[in-house]
Amino acid sequence: MRKPSIAPSLLAADFGNLQRDVEMVNASEAEYHHIDVMDGVFVPNISYGMPVVKAIQKSATKPLDVHLMIVDPDRYIEEFANLGASILTVHYEACTHLHRTLQAIKAHGMKAGVALNPHTNIMLLEDTIQDIDVVLIMSVNPGFGGQSFIENTYEKVKALKALIKRKKSSALIEIDGGVTTQNSQKLVEAGADILVAGSFVFKSDDPLKTIKELKG
Ligand code: DX5
Ligand code: ZN
């Protein structure tokens, strides 16, 4: 069985001990640090902004997977490149000129990600899939950690995998929201490459072990 990459979401970290939690991810088998930036407009919640991302970047030894849940993300592409983001993911629903946004992200040396809300059909990526490095499928409505996984995600992942194949794209499939060991294997079987997990990792008794278990 193919093993997925794991991206622990620091939204569920203990912000009073952020460095400790980033170092836990450094020491783990995870591949990325998943960083959720929310603006209180695109989603009903505000998470954290640039100073916190900078603090994370200082202690992080793995690539930063930055998930922007903000309107008009083009305004901040350069800033996130300077903050050391490796993957910069914008929401399909927040981009009027998605193709241009993807080119701008790549021109700044980052991998370009596109996130889809649960209601957004994967076929809307038909004309951009060859320009995308990572498609992030939201398996909960974005804005909060700790929600339960939407079961329709499996079908969506399979359809996306077929689209990627048909279009000869090299895009990776990332799943975000409600990921646990209850659904991780089935997601990988459906075609997922990267699994994001917040609460399941950070609220567990042994996060290092939990990350290992998510890899399967
Ligand atoms: C939700 C965020 C997720 C969140 C996942 O809007 O994009 O990355 O942190 O948290 P869990 O794994 O707790 O659902
Ligand atoms: Zn996220």
TrEMBL record:
<feature type="binding site">
    <location>
        <position position="34"/>
    </location>
    <ligand>
        <name>a divalent metal cation</name>
    </ligand>
</feature>
<dbReference type="GO" id="GO:0005737">
    <property type="term" value="C:cytoplasm"/>
</dbReference>
<dbReference type="GO" id="GO:0046872">
    <property type="term" value="F:metal ion binding"/>
</dbReference>
<dbReference type="InterPro" id="IPR011060">
    <property type="entry name" value="RibuloseP-bd_barrel"/>
</dbReference>
<keyword id="KW-0862">Zinc</keyword>
<feature type="active site" description="Proton donor">
    <location>
        <position position="176"/>
    </location>
</feature>
<feature type="binding site">
    <location>
        <begin position="176"/>
        <end position="178"/>
    </location>
    <ligand>
        <name>substrate</name>
    </ligand>
</feature>
<feature type="binding site">
    <location>
        <position position="67"/>
    </location>
    <ligand>
        <name>a divalent metal cation</name>
    </ligand>
</feature>
<keyword id="KW-0464">Manganese</keyword>
<feature type="binding site">
    <location>
        <position position="176"/>
    </location>
    <ligand>
        <name>a divalent metal cation</name>
    </ligand>
</feature>
<comment type="function">
    <text>Catalyzes the reversible epimerization of D-ribulose 5-phosphate to D-xylulose 5-phosphate.</text>
</comment>
<feature type="binding site">
    <location>
        <position position="9"/>
    </location>
    <ligand>
        <name>substrate</name>
    </ligand>
</feature>
<protein>
    <recommendedName>
        <fullName>Ribulose-phosphate 3-epimerase</fullName>
        <ecNumber>5.1.3.1</ecNumber>
    </recommendedName>
</protein>
<dbReference type="InterPro" id="IPR026019">
    <property type="entry name" value="Ribul_P_3_epim"/>
</dbReference>
<dbReference type="InterPro" id="IPR013785">
    <property type="entry name" value="Aldolase_TIM"/>
</dbReference>
<dbReference type="InterPro" id="IPR000056">
    <property type="entry name" value="Ribul_P_3_epim-like"/>
</dbReference>
<keyword id="KW-0479">Metal-binding</keyword>
<keyword id="KW-0170">Cobalt</keyword>
<comment type="similarity">
    <text>Belongs to the ribulose-phosphate 3-epimerase family.</text>
</comment>
<feature type="binding site">
    <location>
        <begin position="198"/>
        <end position="199"/>
    </location>
    <ligand>
        <name>substrate</name>
    </ligand>
</feature>
<feature type="binding site">
    <location>
        <position position="178"/>
    </location>
    <ligand>
        <name>substrate</name>
    </ligand>
</feature>
<keyword id="KW-0413">Isomerase</keyword>
<feature type="binding site">
    <location>
        <begin position="143"/>
        <end position="146"/>
    </location>
    <ligand>
        <name>substrate</name>
    </ligand>
</feature>
<keyword id="KW-0119">Carbohydrate metabolism</keyword>
<dbReference type="GO" id="GO:0019323">
    <property type="term" value="P:pentose catabolic process"/>
</dbReference>
<dbReference type="GO" id="GO:0006098">
    <property type="term" value="P:pentose-phosphate shunt"/>
</dbReference>
<feature type="binding site">
    <location>
        <position position="36"/>
    </location>
    <ligand>
        <name>a divalent metal cation</name>
    </ligand>
</feature>
<feature type="active site" description="Proton acceptor">
    <location>
        <position position="36"/>
    </location>
</feature>
<dbReference type="Pfam" id="PF00834">
    <property type="entry name" value="Ribul_P_3_epim"/>
</dbReference>
<dbReference type="GO" id="GO:0004750">
    <property type="term" value="F:D-ribulose-phosphate 3-epimerase activity"/>
</dbReference>
<comment type="pathway">
    <text>Carbohydrate degradation.</text>
</comment>
<feature type="binding site">
    <location>
        <position position="67"/>
    </location>
    <ligand>
        <name>substrate</name>
    </ligand>
</feature>
